[in-house]
Amino acid sequence: MRFPILLLLTSLASPATAHHSLAGYDHARRVTLDGVVSEFSFTNPHPFLTIVVGQERWRLEMDNLWELAEIGLTRDSFKPADRVRVSGSPDRTAARSMYLWSLDRAADGLHYEQVGSRPSVRKLPKS
Fold first, then answer.
1. Residue pLDDT, tens place only, 10-28
2. Half-sphere exposure at residue 47, Cβ-oriented, CA atoms within 13 angstroms
3. What is the torsional sign of CA 102, 39, 105, 65?
4. Above pLDDT 90, what percent of the chain?
5. Domains with residue ranges and CATH for the chain
């Protein structure tokens, strides 16, 4: 009886652990891009921002939906045609994909940053 219970507990814990891992991203490298927002998917569990850089589309994974909502981000926070500068860790296997660490939108001074395990957002003076 012990083995089936242990197997069940292990199988329940593994997806949660894998889901919250950022091991798929190369944290030894940082990529900074200037691009234009084409889509913002404010979905659970992790929102994604898609930007166009030249002719390439980049997919940027963000922190979890609930923490982003807690700091005031909504599905309308990023609109198509917003010009942004982003910085993040590139995906180890997928091209043009990264985990987003920071974003600046000069038009209104918005600054998003992932600090440790918590996101933050603030308005900076326009440059």
1. 444 433 434 456 778 988 9
2. 21
3. negative
4. 71
5. 23-123 (2.40.50.140)
Q: How far apart are the first and last CA of the chain?
A: 66
Cα gap 104→49, rounded to integer Å:
13
Dist CA 110 CA 127 (whole Å): 11
Q: What tokens does 16 get?
A: 């949660």
Has this prediction a pTM greater than 0.85? no
Tokens describing residue 57: 């589309």
Three-state SS for 45-61 is CCCEEEEEECCEEEEEE
**Residues ≥6 apart with Cβ < 8 Å to 119:** 62, 63, 67, 68, 71, 73, 112, 113
